[in-house]
Prior knowledge:
The chain is α/β, with parallel strands linked by helices. 51% of the residues lie in helices and 9% in strands.
Amino acid sequence: xxxxxxxxxxxxxxxxxxxxxxxxxxxxxxxxxxxxxxxxxxxxxxxxxxxxxxxxxxxxxxxxxxxxxxxxxxxxxxxxxxxxxxxxxxxxxxxxxxxxxxxxxxxxxxxxxxxxxxxxxxxxxxxxxxxxxxxxxxxxxxxxxxxxxxxxxxxxxxxxxxxxxxxxxxxxxxxxxxxxxxxxxxxxxxxxxxxxxxxxxxxxxxxxxxxxxxxxxxxxxxxxxxxxxxxxxxxxxxxxxxxxxxxxxxxxxxxxxxxxxxxxxxxxxxxxxxxxxxxxxxxxxxxxxxxxxxxxxxxxxxxxxxxxxxxxxxxxxxxxxxxxxxxxxxxxxxxxxxxxxxxxxxxxxxxxxxxxxxxxxxxxxxxxxxxxxxxxxxxxxxxxxxxxxxxxxxxxxxxxxxxxxxxxxxxxxxx
Length: 415
């Protein structure tokens, strides 16, 4: 199925970014919301993205105007009736998304594909309220959509294979890298990123290291920004919501760090409020250090203190272990897991992703470290069973010639 026209339901930040990506690829796109003001604001946001390109010399004002001719606004979802594909980008509330999909199911042609940009909610549940579950799919863009190359394509239980093929082809036409992901809580990238971020907060909670030291160490490893800078950018409240969803689905290994909850309760939720793990100009009678000391003390009083020396391996191995569990469950292939983490989070290209990192370190060493962390920290680090199977088979990674991936024998590489 060729997609000639696209609709975007929801004119907020992500809706506008998706509309810009679609129009930049040369396809007409209609941006719809609840009223004329909201939909026009979405179109204005698209123009602002293009204007930033002009300011950087990446396109001319004339090219901007040509692209904007492809973008129109609709004050209601009725304006999406001629779209071949509609991408829903409303708030992360299942009930709201289901109501939008019911309305789209009524309005759009029977051949139209209905996609959700949800980052965590069930595609099957969304599709269940329509008369076309075979045409319902997840299409998760990452923020900012115009810069991030990855999109997750998530079939629901009722999604037809042809719908998957059509959406993969559409994603490629946008010059995006689609990764097909089995439906599960958090899908792939957020499911692996959340334990990494959460473990960084657990490490800070232990009290052996500062926020800045952790961020600097992870940047020196090769991550584009430190975990606390990323948390402040995403929003601690959103990160906590994701952690709670994953905790309900996967159990104790995803338990949110009490210090994260304490920061959110204290109103320090990131850049959008001017204060999070860092201060961003918000007026506060107490400085960051005082807040951190007080919140740490509150957490220690409730949970006890388990002081451990900082090691970057703790957040990294939390991500690696979850990557192995996702691989076991068939959420994605080893190649796609590493590709998604590199394209979706900026995992350093020279490390190639969490599974390649495990192969490089040595799967036997990873298993040993996880076992030691499990004894000291608890079930967050219970090793994925697949790790032990690989070690028992002698598939310990790069030096052995085989782990999650295959490698040339060391002797062959030395010739």
